[in-house]
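Page 37, top half.
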Amino acid sequence: MKYWRRVKKTHPRAVAYADRHYTRQTPGSPQFMPPGQTIVLLSEQAVFGWWRPKPGIEAMHHLDGWTCTIFHREGKDGPLASELILDAEDAISLYGYDCGGDGLLTYIGKHLDGTCFQLAGYAPVGAAVDGKMLLGKPYRPWLYPPPLQGELL
């Protein structure tokens, strides 16, 4: 990954970015990701969270893939949001996870159009119960780097 480093879901700077995101349900909480498998990424100006339910548990959207539960970028300097998204996709394979048949997923708030995700190759695949748009992208493992080895996991 070029722009991100993996951190825990309790990392203070990641939590601070999450507190300023429009989806934040409990600002000030010491962590911001749902239970399950998570990959939290932090850059100089953004936070990104991948989530997948624990094996054997079905997600509420009934799809089998990794869902971006948060992407919050501050400032206009640096890489484009779509570049950050594409770079964040590498984390799934780098950390040794498989993806699931429904690929990569994200919800877009009603007040947004999802341009940055669409520029990264995501397309509408449905809507959530609350009216948010659900975007998806096939996961093609051969496009991503091989898993990291040893203590870097």
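Page 37, bottom half:
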Amino acid sequence: MRRLLLLSAVTVASACADNQQPTAPARARSAGPTSSAAGQLAPSSQGKPTDQVGFTTLTIVETTTTIAVGQGGGAVALCPVGDQVSGGGYSTSGTGTPPYIGRSSMTTSGSQNGWIVLAENTAPGAGAITMRVSVHCVH
């Protein structure tokens, strides 16, 4: 047990020593694109991709609707055809009591995926609301 404590103390002391060596590469890399292990091009010297193979594109689609006092309503935000939903949600603005949200989930409409939100604006003290529905789409 004493050896383990002594070994731990020596390890911590050496890790915290003031004579640390730099961890940066010893030589600068070339400015041109290089091949990665997968055979695809690496980012350029400015950090921009030189090739779109393998990159995921995220698109956020939003739609807005107004729901009057005493009414129910909803909205659907749809991804472009071929995209998949990675998430979605809603926000509301207005005065008075917030609406009851009956559904906030992924949906499908024909060949498009999206996000649907259904709300009831019938609570006592409710005012007209504006609801924004958004969907995060990946391609």
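Margin note: The helical segments are 2-15.
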